[in-house]
Amino acid sequence: MSTSRHAFTIVELLVVVAIIALLVGILLPAIAKARDQTKAAVSAANLRQLGVAHGSYAADWQDHQFTLIDDHMGDYGNDVTQAFASYETRNGLRHPPILLGWAKKFSTGQYALWELGSPGLSAYQPITFVPASGTGGERFGSFRLPNVKQFNQYTCGRFYHPMYYAPKGVAVTEFVKGAFESPYEYRLKEQQDERIAWSSYCMSAAAMFSPDIFRTSRSGGWQNPWIVGGAFRTPGYGQALYPSLKTHVLEHNWLQNPQGTTCNPSFVDGTYGGCEPFYFNHAWESSPMTLFYDGHVEGVGVRRAMRADGRIRAQSDDPDAGLWSRDTAWGDDGYFISLGYDQANTSFHVLTTDGIRGRDVLSR
Questions:
Q1: Pairing label, strands 247-251, 99-105
Q2: CA–CA separation, 109 vs 97, rounded Å?
Q3: Which domain range does residue 302 map to?
Q4: Strand, coil or helix: what is 270?
Q5: Is residue 211 part of a domain?
Q6: Edge-first strand listing for the sheet containing 289-292
Q7: Residue 134 region, left (φ>0) first, then alpha (ψ -120 to 50), else beta?
Q8: How far is Cα of residue 64 from the mean position of the Cα atoms in its chain?
């Protein structure tokens, strides 16, 4: 008994193609979203590991937070240049350097413990308001250096390690491509054009100073740390009055909810091959993964931080009141606000009013 077979008609083939296209259209966004969520989860895990490391550091240093500057440096002079010079004169040795790690210089075969050069003295302070003459580094500081040797001994023992670099930070991770596999603590090859790929994560600069620096406006307002005794003595974790509302470490660049753009054209000479990413406070939609002082991790939206700040300001008749200090050396521009992607207007985390004793968000 014979049977006949019928080939697909053109209409049937078109229907099949249409169904496949529809499925692809449905699945691709879902796959992309799942991949994005996975990367965010990896970043959150990195932050939790950093939280544990900070706890270990505090256990070794009488509850003090990580710092790279002598607690009493302000006693040596009224500015950074004078203070570091006086420190060396009085003590007979220079201030302990910022260590990047042991590395091999392949051109000479030299294996040595490398130190941070540029931006020099600015990197020792939690954040630099007035840089040393001719050195640059304004708005930079140790709050950007969670992966130097003085701290990474509590984690992985390496400067370039995936736990210090969020997977969604493409501009940065591309710049350090290959460094993660290096057997050395530091890799000189990545110091392209004397540039270093800074960690994706940054600590709260305000919380690394004495709370007397970021005073509320009613208490006299912000003070230059070089004229305040004990300004550089890092406060202990026990001083956090709102540990569940004060940010500790977060993603420095705009990584969550990006709008298809990475490099900020407002920066003429970017750090990563000419590219300088937008920062976490540069867009309404930004929601950096964040570690709080109580150890929990969550995404903190710029909108949420701005609403909290606005609520506090509305409750006060003081125009300078708010959750972040608008009376520092940078005024309303705060942490590069004018170079933002849209009209986002906040410097939460970096310039928190009252430092570690302050809040960056309010309870929901």
A1: unpaired
A2: 23
A3: 10-357
A4: strand
A5: yes
A6: 201-203, 247-251, 289-292, 297-299
A7: left
A8: 20
Residues in the chain: 364
pLDDT digits (tens, 9 = 90+) for 136-152: 689 999 999 999 999 99
Confidence of residue 28 (pLDDT cuts 50, 70, 90): low
Structure tokens at 266: 């407002």
Query: How far is CA 246 from each of CA 42, 80, 203, 361, rounded to the nearest angstrom?
Result: 22, 28, 11, 7
CA distances from 261 to 165, 264, 279, 297 (A): 19, 8, 12, 25
Q: Quick check: is 362 in a domain?
A: no
Q: What is the mean pLDDT of the chain?
A: 90
Two structure tokens written together for 40: 């965010």
168 located within any domain: yes
Q: What confidence tens digit (pLDDT) does each residue in 191-216 have?
A: 656 678 999 999 999 999 999 999 99
Please state the domain count of the chain. 1
- What's the one-letter identity of residue 343? Q
The reply to whether 3 falls in a domain is no
- What's residue 190's pLDDT? 58
